[in-house]
Amino acid sequence: MDRSAPRAWSPAELDCVLGGWTAGPGPLYRRLAAALHHAVRTGELAPGDRLPAERTLAAALGLSRATVVCAYDELRGAGAVDSRRGSGTRIARLPGSSLRPADGRVPGGTATALVQRLVDDGPAEVISLSVAARGAAPEVREALGALLADGLDPLLAESGYHPGGLPALRAAVADRYTAAGLRTAPEQILVTTGATQALALVAQLYLRRGSAVVVETPSWPGCLDALLAAGARPRRVPLDAEGIALPGFRAALPGAVLAHVTPTFHNPTGVLMSAARRERIAVLAARARVPVVEDLAYDTRLWDAPEPGPVAAHAPPDAEVLSIGSLAKAVWGGLRIGWLRGPAPVVERLARLKARADLGSPLLDQALAVRLLPRVEDMRAARAVTLRAGLAGLEELLARQLPGWTWQRPDGGAALWTRLPSGADAAVFAQVALRYGVELVPGAMTDPSGAHDDRVRLPFTLPESGLADLVDRLSRAWTACAVQGVSGKRPRPSRHTEQSVTCRS
Which tens digit of pLDDT belongs to each residue from 196-218? Predict the structure, then answer.
């Protein structure tokens, strides 16, 4: 994309740039004007860019038209925009303004707003539901103490450079896969700085601009953006009760260069892909000679039912399956240790790419992970008890205060994939909810087709008092929507070019 060329911003794209603007102080129109002015000063909105029409932007943000009119007037008064009949409202050229710089946003992506919240570290009074996680497991403190007591000296004697990962950790992860029925050697493991880096490295290795990639819909925005950033054209396949639907998956494979699935507690739906479905996915992909990336980072158990082995364990010998894992959900998001398992030649190529990026993940974190890995199943079981209590509490609160909202209990994970009633647009409701101190992940972030526009993801990882506060805020925001009449459908702008695959499942 020519980043110097003026562009016409759709309401959805502008929403990503504005981030959590409604959470600030003062009248809404001044908050909106301030957020737009900030985007102009930072170059995110460049001279000549056209803003959405007042009525269109108001509908998308759940505002009255008068609020947007006043915000645009404020910007005109500051000299930040020009408005001319027939050409709309455009960003003016300010002293010191320049061409729009590269800023980490993914063209066509939907995760920008979530990333921006992490970058900004948002207002403390806002309950952000963009991350479904709790604090560290108590075993982290114990393992760190043990490492400091008896494991630090040998580590400090090393040079510190292991692009493929600390050998002891590669061996420990390999043993974990072997114990699960998937024979694995240490050279088949690449240690990464979280699961996100693993997926980004895979995308860098396999994808070029225009590469067709089979993905589930809905999908987590961060995963989609990692693929889109490498130039992917998503071929979206819906889910059924057993995972990605087979008719759509089969139809999407010809000409694809990669397939991405989340078989264990899919994010955001919580679906657990059956063993039979995993085998069929592996077989179909092998026949089509399409590598499969299985994202196993969302292994947050809720129930005691057995889980099928990885897709790679069900794959024929000629299949190319890359399995991504992480300690973030079971142990702690602050321990940025992930990994990838795959054929040794592929892992070696990925290790070279990682070496160019960072020369290897921090060794202290990896040494800590070595001590934690043998206890992961105990930590998952303990966390499941807490999560089940949170799930029960959230369901009770929603049933009492928001009785029109519906959901299906997830197979696993840490969130409810919740449907709003009356055909409400969750993206519009999310704007209103932010004014009541709740940051939501609406369905449009997970699926730009419009099929999940009435959905929101509601994590149940907050403590009991936090869940009560959350649902109270959501209830007040929902009441405000009903009073203001802003919860209806909004026009959907076209998004990035992609191929869609629909099927009956």
Answer: 999 999 999 999 999 999 999 99
- Centre a 10 Å sphere on the Cβ of residue 87 and count the other Cβ atoms it contains: 9
Angle CA 240–246–250, to nearest 5: 145
For residue 395, the surrounding DSSP H or E stretch is helix 376-401
CATH topology of domain 127-135+378-484: Aspartate Aminotransferase, domain 1 (3.90.1150)
Q: How far is CA 54 from CA 20, 51, 114, 505, in A?
A: 19, 9, 25, 41
- Enter the CATH code of domain 11-102: 1.10.10.10
Sorting pLDDT into bands at 50, 70 and 90, what band is 432?
A: very high
DSSP run (H or E) holding 204 = helix 194-206
Mean model confidence pLDDT for the chain = 88
Distance (Å, whole) CA 372 – CA 394: 30
Task: Yes or no: say if 429 and 487 are a contact pair by the CB < 8 Å rule.
Answer: yes
Residue 299: closest CA among 273, 325, 276:
325
SS (H, E, C) 437-500: CEECEEHHHCCCCCCCCCEEEEECCCCHHHHHHHHHHHHHHHHHHHHHCCCCCCCCCCCCCCEE
Which DSSP symbol is given to 384? H
Beginning with the edge strand found earlier in the chain, give each strand of the sheet holding 455-459 in spatial order.
415-419, 455-459, 441-442
Strands 127-128 and 438-439: parallel
- Sequential DSSP letters for 296-361: -------SSS--PPPGGGGS-TT--EEEEEESTTTT-TTS--EEEE--HHHHHHHHHHHHHHHSS-
Do 11-102 and 138-376 agree at the fold level? Answer: no
Q: What does the alpha-carbon distance between residue 244 and residue 240 come to, in Å, rounded to a whole number?
A: 6
Q: Are 248 and 501 in contact (CB under 8 A)?
A: yes
For 190, list phi and psi in degrees, rounded to 5. Answer: -120, 125
Beta strands 338-341 and 438-439, pairing class: unpaired
Of 192, 186, 158, 148, whose CA–CA distance to 371 is shortest?
148
pTM here? Answer: 0.84
CATH code, residues 138-376: 3.40.640.10
- pLDDT tens-place string over residues 473-488: 999 999 998 876 654 4
Query: What residue spans define the domains of the chain?
Result: 11-102, 127-135+378-484, 138-376
Q: Quick check: 99 pLDDT over 70? A: no
